[in-house]
Amino acid sequence: MPRPTISTMDLSGKHVVITGSANGIGKALAERFHAAGARVVVADLDGAGAQLVSQALNALRADSSIGVGADVSSEQGNVQLINDAVAAFGPIDLFWANAGVGIGTDLSTTEDVWDAAFDINVHAHRWAAKHLLPGWLERGHGYFCSTASAAGLLSQIGSAPYSLTKHAAVAFAEWMSLTYGDQGLRVSCLCPQGVNTNMLRQGDEPGVGGSSSVVRSAGVVLEPAEVAEAALAVIEAETFLVAPHPEVLTYWSRKVADYDRWLAGMRKLQARIVGG
Predict the structure, then answer these.
(1) What is the predicted pLDDT for the residue at 202?
(2) Is the pTM higher than 0.85?
(3) 3-state secondary structure string, 4-18?
(4) What is the maximum span of the chain, computed from C-alpha positions, in angstroms?
(5) Is 162 a catalytic residue?
(6) Distance of CA 214 to the CA centre of its chain
(7) CA 213 from chain center: how many Å?
(8) What is the rounded CA–CA span in Å between residue 85 and residue 205?
(9) pLDDT score for 7
(10) Given CB 3.0 to 4.6 Å as the disulfide criterion, which of 15, 65, 154, 159 pairs with 54?
(11) Per-residue pLDDT tens for 86-127?
């Protein structure tokens, strides 16, 4: 009996769009995917920063990238980004919803902050998929990727909006895969823990969800390039979960094995951090 064919993704010549890619993980993804041969749309609210990243990529390979100012906190912003990308490089092969915010604390968080967290961390994924999916299904192939967080598998001490939205981001990616995985759509979801980015450093500011000391206490802090390398390996294998921190999978398995014990351990961690 012949062995089943294993599907793999080759980024060479593919059209890739990455949101939130003027810095941090998004920038590292853009650089790594470009090095793998992709044509890359660098999209960010910071349009000037996106263009700087794109210029550096074009210096390595001419006419292989554009930088786009994009506000993905609205449906129209996602539509405009998709239209700009298609106008530049044709149909999109892979879309990475990477833009995210780490805002809010407890239930005293204002409604506008809750709305912003859901719009950027969750609804942006849904809006992009809504407008990409018809073309992908018609062509019989497409790749949707998203950046969630270890907080989407576990939880974030200190920030209710971050925990809820990252759980929702993982759930949406799962739903996309199980609903359209047999129709040519591939889905991957990135769930890192500590990464040396502006968001991690921002976590030390008062009033911002989740102190970076919480993340640093739980494991090693990776560089964005290390996360991008792990992401490329998962995409090439066309598997779902990008977990660049092995300890996250250990914590996750403990959570599933004994939920109450895991919750008790997290409460102890919270007490230690808050009492720090």
Answers:
(1) 60
(2) yes
(3) CCCCCCCCCCCEEEE
(4) 62
(5) yes
(6) 20
(7) 22
(8) 35
(9) 57
(10) 65
(11) 999 999 999 999 999 999 999 999 999 999 999 999 999 999
Q: Which of the residues 162, 180, 251, 259 is marked catalytic?
A: 162
pLDDT tens, residue by residue, 91-102: 999 999 999 999
CATH code: domain 15-247 is 3.40.50.720
Confidence of residue 206 (pLDDT cuts 50, 70, 90): very low
Cα distances (angstroms) measured from residue 167 to each of 27, 38, 56, 147: 23, 30, 34, 11
Q: At residue 256, what are phi and psi to the nearest 5 degrees?
A: -65, -35
C-alpha separations of 172 from 129, 177, 252, 261 in Å: 10, 9, 18, 27
The yes-or-no verdict on residue 57 having pLDDT over 80 is yes
- Closest-CA residue to 196 (of 245, 246, 247, 146): 245
Q: How far is the first Cα of the chain from the last one, in angstroms, to the nearest whole number?
A: 60
